Amino acid sequence: MDDRTFRNAMGKFATGVTVITTSQNGEVRGMTANAFMSVSLDPKLVLISVGEKAKMNEMIKETGKFTVNILSEDQKEMSMLFAGQLKEDRKVDFDWIDGHPILPNSLASILCDVYDAHIAGDHTLYIGKVTNIHMNDGDPLLFFEGKYRNIANPSNVG
């Protein structure tokens, strides 16, 4: 099978959208990801997948921490910004909890210390031990078949 067929099949799995953040020496880095899942309740563990060549990969290795910001339907622009889809320079104002940068108005911000890491193909799977959680009410930003969606209008997000 070719890469496009594989990607199209994976696109059939509807996901939420997250922005992974970390910081080092005052520099905040973020990346959009939909490869996120819970792993364990005891201990509380989550998993993210980061491309081996991504700058975020090196930074998480160095800092040993990351935050998973689960985006609300009103945060499509944040997703696009951290996915590199918006080319303009834009300043993002982060909130801070326990030294972790979080995106304001996210449905949940899950603060993690790296618990374990595994290289799998062209990605590193980071298992994070959850150290803190901040939550807000709202509806999620969804992603399906390569397009942003939301609960109220599942066919597309404008």
TrEMBL record:
Keywords: Oxidoreductase. It holds the Pfam family Flavin_Reduct. It comes from the Bacteria. Residues 10-150 form the Flavin reductase like domain. InterPro entries: Flavin_Rdtase-like_dom (IPR002563), NADH-dep_flavin_reductase (IPR050268), Split_barrel_FMN-bd (IPR012349). PANTHER family: FLAVIN REDUCTASE, FMN REDUCTASE (NADH) RUTF. This is Flavin reductase (DIM6/NTAB) family NADH-FMN oxidoreductase RutF. It comes from Aeribacillus alveayuensis.
